[in-house]
């Protein structure tokens, strides 16, 4: 489903004329099959977010190829990439990134509005997702009227609502207490099982890495497989 082939990336640091180049991704190869939950762990600065940005198409690698569902997406234009993301990829963030002026329902509905879906279909789709993630009672709450766990559920529902084939998650439980973390991890597992959704999760947290089917560790821009086990 996702294949990274020999991905390399460097950032240039410093003023023009005095810049130096820091290799951040070095010869990364990764293959993620449909229905997997993959975690990428590693210290701060090891290149995890850069890798996720490359997979998402926000950052073009200096070299290497990226395939999603057998389609080479490395050289898509920005517009084509944005369109591709809207149809195929959902995002979950550590700090939720919800729109503060929109209710839970409206936050989840937003990607469907952007896609031009009609009002009745939107309502049906959002209500179905809200039920799936346990938000049916708080649709009219604004983000500041929700707990951290509920906000993360809204973020997850918003990621799911366009029916993506893959979810990219950046520290999805980083802002949650340990009990809420367990609830969100259980939700991710059940979505994976029921919907056969694929997840790539970057995390510092070994608890998160424990629910995954494959685990990789980044170290100074290099990646190695740590373990693979059935959940
Ligand atoms: N836009 C940029 N320009 C220059 N250097 C960058 C840029 N973004 C990241 N870096 C550098 O690339 C390296 C990897 O950063 P990255 O954010 O991918 O690490 P990370 O593993 O996600 O860290 P964290 O867990 O703290 O988020 C770091 O040394 C960082 O300083």
From TrEMBL:
The keyword Cell division does not apply. InterPro entries: AAA+_ATPase (IPR003593), ABC_transporter-like_ATP-bd (IPR003439), ABC_transporter-like_CS (IPR017871), ABC_transpr_LolD-like (IPR015854), MacB-like_ATP-bd (IPR017911), P-loop_NTPase (IPR027417). SMART domains: AAA. Residues 2-231 form the ABC transporter domain. Keywords: ATP-binding, Nucleotide-binding, Transport. GO terms for molecular function: ATP binding; ATP hydrolysis activity; transmembrane transporter activity. Pfam families: ABC_tran (PF00005). It comes from the Bacteria. Signal peptide: none annotated. GO terms for cellular component: membrane protein complex; plasma membrane. This is ABC transporter ATP-binding protein.
């Amino acid at each position: 489903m996702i294949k990274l082939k020999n991905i390399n990336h460097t950032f240039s640091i410093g003023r023009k004329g005095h810049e130096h180049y820091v290799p951040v991704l070095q010869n990364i190869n990764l293959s993620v099959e449909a229905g997997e939950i993959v975690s990428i762990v590693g210290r701060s600065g090891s290149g995890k977010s850069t890798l996720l940005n490359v997979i998402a198409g926000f950052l073009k690698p200096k070299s290497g190829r990226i395939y999603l569902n057998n389609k080479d997406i490395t050289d898509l234009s920005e517009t084509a990439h944005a369109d591709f993301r809207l149809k195929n990829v959902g995002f979950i963030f550590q700090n939720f990134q919800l729109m503060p002026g929109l209710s839970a329902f409206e936050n989840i509905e937003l990607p469907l509005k952007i896609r031009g879906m009609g009002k009745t279909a939107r309502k049906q789709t959002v209500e179905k997702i809200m039920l799936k993630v346990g938000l049916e009672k708080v649709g009219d709450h604004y983000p500041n009227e929700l707990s951290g766990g509920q906000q993360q559920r809204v973020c997850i529902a918003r990621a799911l609502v366009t029916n993506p084939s893959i979810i990219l998650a950046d520290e999805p439980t980083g802002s949650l207490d340990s009990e809420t973390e367990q609830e969100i991890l259980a939700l991710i597992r059940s979505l994976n099982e029921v919907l056969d959704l694929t997840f790539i999760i970057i995390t510092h947290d070994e608890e998160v890495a424990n629910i995954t089917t494959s685990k990789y560790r980044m170290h100074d821009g290099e990646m190695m497989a740590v373990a693979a086990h059935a959940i």
